[in-house]
Amino acid sequence: MKSGKAVGPDDIPLEVWKCLGEAAVEFLASLFNRVLESERMPEEWRRSVLVPIFKNKGDVQSCSNYRGIKLMIHTMKLWERVVEARLRKVVEICEQQYGFIPRKSTTDAIFALRILMEEKYRDGQRELHCVFVDLEKVYDRVPREELWYCMRKSGVAEKYVRVVQDMYERSRTVVKCAVGQTEEFNMKVGLHQGSALSPFLFAIVMDQLSEEVRQESPWTMMFADDIVICSESREQVEENLERWRFALERRGMKVSRSKTEYMCVNEREGSGTVRLQSEEVKKVLEFKYLGSTVQSNGECGKEVKKQVQAGWNGWRKVSGVLCDRKISARIKGKVYRTVVRAAMLYGLETVSLRKRQESELEVAELKMLRFSLGVTRLDRIRNEYIRGTAHVGRLGDKVREARLRWFGHVQRREMYRI
Q1: Is 302 left (phi over 0), alpha (psi -120 to 50) or beta?
Q2: In whole numbers, what is the pLDDT of the chain averaged over residues?
Q3: Which end of the chain is more exposed for a tag (fewer CB within 10 A), N or C?
């Protein structure tokens, strides 16, 4: 676990155990062995603090626009890590799931979707129908009995099922906000938001849930609860959407009718719309998938503009450092590469950039570097000197470097994986 995380109700940070070194390892090993043997964790570990975090979209006064994050006791989160490591040894998650799986990331899912849209269908002049399924408060809706059932079906030993059940039994929390906190109450449904184990437990649930629809809907990608259903025909994608809706809602989850969206790649006239039961699914020309904008025409112009804007947003956040004349150009370059360039490069290894779009990114970067170094065009200083002073290479070279790194990652994978 990383240092610097918010503490739970006991106010004991992870750094305490790290400072104790080998003595802490021996003590925790003994403690965790006793917990595993008794299948009972300390009562103090059941307590948590729930903090509502605004999603930065929608009405700030609407509770639905907040995500509840639990601040849990760090020692309990270490115990969760131990249990998770044991579960991963016995549970195999399907290839269609990209979330919370080793050696997989958002880049894999974005690449798979883009390669399908751009190369297979846009270049082949064929239609591809995609439905982006949104689930309502899915972490909070997972029924506990359904979780135990999915764990057993995935081959988890009964002892570890009981250990996880104990983590959720009699769990108590308080809601903390700016004006104070509520009285303590029990949590009887859903997974713990902020838990170290919850992401993998959710992957197990989604894996078992999707098992009954995977054969009929092979072109489906999942990243946790972000589901994309693809098909060559509108009728087929509508049928697969209904299969997913039935499977999800039968297990206590709910598909959001208002946020689920449909997009047709290389659309011909009269291709129609998709319906979910009696409601028409919103049809869009672009969709923001895992932070990357995909367009129905297979182009990437809006994605490049979004990345430029992301770079400027990052630059404004650290402009107090970048524009400070007392800070050396070398330090400014390090801050720039860490904050600004990282934001601009996100997902670009999956994008087929044209020369004009690459130039658009580099022009924006040079403007930021000139502002940071206090240099204007009137000073008639060459771009190469600006980059050399800040120790920042050409952005186009970095994109190609990221693309080659990604190519190596793809080459090392098994042939049956995307």
Answers
A1: alpha
A2: 90
A3: N
Residues 166 and 177 in one domain: yes
Question: Would you state the pLDDT for residue 410?
Answer: 81
Residues of the chain with pLDDT under 50: none
CATH code at 241?
Answer: 3.30.70.270
Burial class (CB in 10 A: 0-12, 13-18, 19+), 328: exposed
Q: In the block, which residue shows the tokens 């690449």?
A: 111
What is the rounded CA–CA span in Å between residue 173 and residue 183? 8
**Minimal CA–CA distance to 48: which of 169, 172, 154?**
172
Instruction: Tell me 121's DSSP state.
Output: I
3-state class of 13 per DSSP? coil
What gap in Å lies between CA 146 and CA 188, rounded to an integer? 13
d(CA 347, CA 284) in angstroms, rounded, equals 21
The verdict on 206 and 318 lying in the same domain is no
Query: Would you say 44 and 64 are in contact if contact means Cβ atoms under 8 Å apart?
Result: no
Give the residue from 151, 177, 199 where a domain finishes.
199
Residues 333 and 401 in one domain: yes
Burial code (b: 16+ CB inside 10 Å, e: under 16) for 37-73 equals: eeeebeeebbbbbbbeeeeeeeeeeeeeeeebbbbbb
Rounded to whole angstroms, how far apart are CA atoms 141 and 250? 12
What is the rounded CA–CA span in Å between residue 337 and residue 244?
Answer: 42
d(CA 129, CA 140): 30
Same domain membership, residue 285 and residue 253? yes
Residues 85 and 180 in one domain: yes
Last residue of some domain: 272, 295, 318? Answer: 295
Q: Is 132 helix (H, G, I), strand (E, B) or coil?
A: strand
Residue 183 three-state SS: coil
Q: How many domains, in total, are found in the chain?
A: 3
pLDDT at 178: 82
Nearest to 76 by CA among 48, 112, 110: 48
Q: Is residue 62 part of a domain?
A: yes
Domain that holds residue 246: 106-138+202-295
Nearest one of 405, 395, 403 to 340, comparing CA atoms: 395
Residues 6+ apart with CB under 8 A from 402: 345, 348, 349
pLDDT score at 237 = 93
